[in-house]
Amino acid sequence: MLKGLKNFNLPEVEEKVLKFWRENKIFEKSLAKRKGKKPFRFYEGPPYANGQPGIHHVLARVFKDAVLRYKSMQGYFVPRRAGWDTHGLPIELATEKELGIKSKNEIEKFGIDLFNQKAKASVWRYKPEWERLTERIGYWLDLKNAYITYENNYLESLWWIFKKIFEKGFLKQSYKVVPYCPRCQTPLSSHELGQPGVYKKTKDPSIYVKFKVKSRGYRSDDNAASRPKVKKNEFLLVWTTTPWTLPANVAVAVNPKLTYTKYKINGDYYWSYSTPPFKEGEKVEPIEKISGKKLIGLKYEPLYKSKSYKLKAKSYFLVLGADFVSTEEGTGLVHIAPAFGEDDFNLMKDRIAIKDIPVTVDEKGKVKAGFPGAGKFVKEADKDIIADLVKKNKIYASAVIEHEYPFCWRCGVALIYFSRLSWFIEMSRLRTELLAANKKINWIPAYLKDGRFGEWLKEAKDWAVSRERYWGAPLPIWKCG
Q1: Angle between helices 89-99 and 112-122 (to 10 degrees)
Q2: Which of 249, 374, 425, 452 has CA 20 to 30 A from 70's CA?
Q3: What values do phi and psi take at 418, rounded to 5?
Q4: Which long-range contacts (CB under 8 A, 24 or more apart) does 128-132 make?
Q5: Gyration radius of the chain over CA positions
Q6: What is the pLDDT of residues 166-182, one digit of tens each?
Q7: Nearest CA to 403 among 196, 241, 245, 237?
Q8: How close are the terminal C-alpha atoms of the chain, in Å?
Q9: Angle formed at CA 107 by CA 106 and CA 108, multiple of 5 degrees
Q10: pLDDT single digits (tens) 317-357
Q11: Counting Cβ atoms within 10 Å, is residue 17 exposed (0-12), middle (13-18) or buried (19+)?
């Protein structure tokens, strides 16, 4: 093949090798030669053919190809079945752009069936480019027998797997706070938040909110006489970077193991773990120290009241104990809005009925009527809510913070955490088995085993598998009426 070369021109040599492989069916012969041997199974993690391949695809495929050739040289039968991912939001968003559609409502007006036909037709736009890339980089792959995710034989296999998960008792439907894209109007799974570029440096409000203490409250395991006495101008000082969640507040959490201090500042009294921010010349006087356990039960005046939700004052707008409260940032007091925080939801799920959880934001991420910033996206409504709280003398201090914040990896819109009714695979119940299996893997580089991947497995979260969209695999779930 290389005889008679006047100059060693690497691209020319590559083309000659590829031609030789193609004309002599070398890949096919390598499979036929090993048929009947012990199989090393591989299914291509399928790319989307409606997007062009990039340099990162070359790198990933070279790694795969090296492993597969190595296993072939060891004598294994290594069929390499290609695949095409044809479902999901990347396809939908491209179709929306093509049709000039900007929301789920517009898809429904256009017609879901017609929209899905357009989505299906768009899938193969760049298939020739993918096939040319595959051959040009010498990646041996069975493209003729590729599996396609919209075909019935693939969907039936998926349904079979889904049924097995159900039979093993790992499928559940529940309300859970999940990362939610208000533009795509669908939840994201936790692994999608690990996509490159999801977290970006963002400027958000940083405010200290005054929750006026109303009464001592009551705890059956505590002596009321030993509880702190309430003054007229006494406040719980709470720090937050999400003012838009404040209208949905139902409680304030403290850590029972921490010691809190009551500070006197400008004639008012503030409960905080750390010294509150103060201006030069202001006198900050510690008045009293008490364990977080004894703050539990204190009642406070709600920031907002609304006809859209009615909560019994006896059970809400009081201080609760929670181990998740940390002192890394803020005051050691956390405002609780179960519709918009995972820890918040878990703390309140046995105290509040799902139907009673205040949800002050709609599915498009816009503040509902009756609250400051109504009709605006939550991030835009922050200014209105802060202005309203300033007017009510509920803000102790405000500033701007720059921190990491998640954005939808598909459309780039800021995500919100939102309680949604979704279907989950209970991966949290499999943590022990997953960690044990991970120990048997020869990781390269080795630090990944107990590092990034191992840490991820330790905190393996239930996998949200349902999406509130249209062009995807339908879940085979029927509920008896």
Answers
A1: 110
A2: 452
A3: -145, 135
A4: 129/52, 129/53, 130/47, 130/49, 130/53
A5: 29
A6: 999 999 998 889 899 99
A7: 241
A8: 70
A9: 90
A10: 999 999 999 988 899 999 999 999 999 999 998 888 888 89
A11: middle
- Whether 220 shows a pLDDT value over 50: the answer reads no
Name which of 26, 22, 162, 154 is nearest 82 in CA terms. Answer: 154
Percentage of the chain surpassing pLDDT 90?
A: 72
Instruction: Identify the pLDDT of residue 228.
Output: 58
Q: Which residues pair with 402 in a beta bridge?
A: 203
Angstrom distances, CA of residue 152 to CA of 31, 79, 159, 168: 27, 22, 10, 24
Token pair belonging to 364 = 């498009």
Kindly state the average pLDDT of the residues 133-157.
Answer: 94
Amino acid at 146: A
Task: Count the neighbouring beta carbons within 10 Å of the beta carbon of residue 407.
Answer: 17
Q: Report the C-alpha gap between 349 and 421 in whole angstroms.
A: 14
Cis, peptide link before residue 445, omega less than 30° from 0: yes
Residue the block writes with tokens 């752009």: 97
CA dihedral sign, ordered 169, 86, 148, 69: negative
For residues 124 and 143, give the distance between their C-alpha atoms in angstroms, rounded to a whole number: 14
State pTM to two decimals: 0.76
Angle, to 10 degrees, between the axis of helix 26-34 and the axis of helix 10-23?
Answer: 50
Please give the Cα distance from 12 to 442 (Å, whole number): 37
Question: Which residue, 327, 356, 170, is CA-closest to 248?
Answer: 356
Q: Which of 55, 58, 130, 46 is nearest to 90 (CA)?
A: 46
Beta bridge partners of 399: 206
